[in-house]
């Protein structure tokens, strides 16, 4: 359904002017991020850049790190590493949940077995 895209943070919703205004940055800053390969906005049929909410969040984070003294390239690397860490942390947490479920199932099966064997005494 087309309205589902309104809730999709990856849907390219904002044009260059809107994005620049929302972020309070000059359009040239957004173009420079694209030219440097640090942000790859979608393109409309007419070739205009279209930005998603997630991309706007990335621009804010890049700008914040740049304001703290990082180059844009190092800021991009930091954001990529943070994303990798978050993904790895989620994978680890999921593995722990699966392990805990398996241990609970094993312990339950052992109790059932012990109860069943105990009824033969």
UniProtKB/TrEMBL annotation:
UniProt cross-references to Pfam families, sorted A to Z: MerR_1
InterPro entries xref list: DNA-bd_dom_put_sf, MerR-type_HTH_dom, MerR_fam
Superkingdom in the source lineage: Bacteria
Region (Disordered): 86-121
Keywords from the UniProt entry: DNA-binding
Gene3D superfamilies tied to this protein: 1.10.1660.10
Start-end of Basic and acidic residues biased regions: 93-121
Domain HTH merR-type positions: 13-81
UniProt key word Transcription regulation: no
PANTHER family per UniProt: HTH MERR-TYPE DOMAIN-CONTAINING PROTEIN (PTHR30204:SF93), REDOX-CYCLING DRUG-SENSING TRANSCRIPTIONAL ACTIVATOR SOXR (PTHR30204)
Name the record gives this protein: MerR family transcriptional regulator
